[in-house]
Amino acid sequence: MAAIKKYYKIIIWIFIIAYLCFAPSDEFKKIHITIPHFDKIVHWGMFFILGLFITAAKIKKKKIIYTIIPYAFAILYGGIIEIIQMLFIYSRNGDFFDWIADIIGIFSAILVFEYLPSKIKLLLS
């Protein structure tokens, strides 16, 4: 129960990502955005936020294993989402470059987190 309380933001965000990635694409066609490759920006943003939550949660961890596993899980999660979209979601297509955008979002969060003001870091943790 303590782990859920500590990591609830990560857990909730994982479910939000799942909803956004598995919901029928018809729900999002009502939004008319003409920016090229906008879906890559969205993937980057979703996993950037996930990366921020992970980085904020692991601040006090000193062992390398506690650092690597959450990020590896997030990268694997992004890949699994694309495979599920490709194989099982009829209105979605799995895209390798969406997964690359996910990975870039995670690593961007790691790099940016260090430069965030401490008040924002507190909100994330």
Please render the helix and strand layout as text.
Layout: H1 2-6, H2 8-22, H3 38-57, H4 64-88, H5 96-113, H6 118-124
Helix and strand pattern: HHHHHH
Helix content: over 70%
Rounded mean pLDDT is: 86
Radius of gyration: 15 Å
Which regions contain 5 or more consecutive residues with pLDDT less than 50? Answer: none
Total DSSP E strands: 0
* Overall number of domains: 1
Q: For the report, how would you describe the main beta sheet?
A: none
- Percent of sequence in beta strands: under 5%
Shape: globular
Based on secondary structure, the structural category is mainly alpha
Number of helices: 6
How far the N terminus sits from the C terminus, by CA atoms, comes to 17 Å
Word description of this protein:
The chain is an all-alpha fold and about 120 residues long. The mean pLDDT is about 85. It has helices at about 1-5, 10-20, 40-55, 65-90, 95-115, 120-125. It contains six helices and no strands. The chain starts with a helix and ends with a helix.
Characteristics of this structure?
125 residues, mainly alpha, single chain, 0% strand
Give me a quick take on this structure.
This protein has about 120 residues and is mostly helical.
